[in-house]
Amino acid sequence: MSVTCLMQHSAVDYVRMTWKQSGMRSDQFSNIWPKLHQVAQQAGNGKLETEDCKILGYIGNRCGPVFIGRGPEGGIIQASGHCAQLVCELGLQPDNVPRLDLQITQWYSSYDAAVALRGRDEAGVAHASRRGRKPARRYIDGCGDGDTLYLGSRGKKSVFIRVYDKEKESGDEVYESAWRYEAELTDQYAVDAYWNLMEAKFGEPMTARLVLGYLKMRGLELKVPDQAKAFDIARLPKEESSVERRLRWLETQVEPAIQRLLLAGVDPSDIRSRLGLL
After folding, report:
1. Starting at the edge strand that comes first in sequence, how are the strands of the sheet with 159-165 ordered?
2. How many whole angstroms separate alpha carbon 75 and alpha carbon 41?
3. Looking at residue 245, what is its pLDDT?
4. Helices assigned H by DSSP within 13-155
């Protein structure tokens, strides 16, 4: 019996963003926490508690899967799961994005236990025709508890692919007959993906195209219900410099807001004061 993909969902699944010590004033950084706390509570149905903790040398606050902290080098925000998507949608302007995970989850018409195994073989055929060093492949037979496929290696400036049985991994009936395809990006791959997704307002179509592109890099051609095409990662626009990015942000976001405030009769000195220009 033929198995078809009935539905899919794409989103950011993990994000870690950092600021240099000089990149954000202390009060500005602290003002983000209420928004992050709201995101965490929204995902946790208001049942999550806040705790003080230390992560990666940063000291701060954690509420469920969301963390904000400061350290000698500056500040950090990280989030996982659904909260990662919501945090990205806040439109924050970090100095760096050391890691970004993107995912596609597909629900099939019936349970298909061989997705990871077929993926291993498909990637092997694709890699056989390539010159140079071949990306690592590792297939784990779950013996009925869900198989997993890893493509590539973790490290600096890496694209690491995970394909796994989401139904068996989660134990949640919401994921019945579902498989998860994740692209774990680090360093420049993460930075470029973040800012290109920012341009697309972290919309699902662009996220899906990027995941398809990273899968293709590692030898997998994933079929999707809407026939979306994989983004050619080699042609992904590169990150602007932090100065260029901030100047463009001032022009496209801050300037229009200031014009609206002036039209509303707000005193220019009050605006300069709020911007820290006095």
Report:
1. 50-55, 58-63, 66-71, 74-80, 5-20, 96-108, 178-186, 159-165, 148-151, 137-140
2. 22
3. 62
4. 26-43, 82-88, 115-128
Q: Closest Cα to residue 194, out of 234, 232, 236?
A: 236
**Residue 5 DSSP SS3:** strand
- Rounded to the nearest 5 percent, the helix, strand and coil shares of the chain are 40, 30, 35
Q: Sign of dihedral through CA atoms 12, 137, 225, 189?
A: positive
pLDDT at 96: 92
Q: Which of 151, 181, 139 is nearest to 163 (CA)?
A: 181
Tokens of 222: 């994933």
Between the alpha carbon of residue 67 and those of residues 60, 80, 96, 238, 263, the distances in Å are 7, 10, 16, 28, 38
Q: Give which of 128, 139, 123 is closest to 218, Cα–Cα.
A: 123
pTM, full prediction: 0.82
Give the distance from CA 232 to its chain's centroid: 18
- Give the pairing of strands 58-63 and 137-140: unpaired
Residue 66: which of 10, 15, 11 has the closest Cα?
15
Counting beta carbons within 10 angstroms of the beta carbon of residue 219, is it exposed (0 to 12), middle (13 to 18) or buried (19 or more)?
buried
Q: What b/e readout covers 230-245, taking b as 16+ CB neighbours within 10 angstroms?
A: bbebeeeeebeeeeee
Domain boundaries, the chain: 109-238, 240-278
Kindly list the averaged pLDDT for each block of 10 residues, start to end, along the chain of length 278: 84 95 67 88 78 93 93 92 94 93 94 90 80 81 91 90 94 93 96 93 93 93 76 68 65 80 88 78
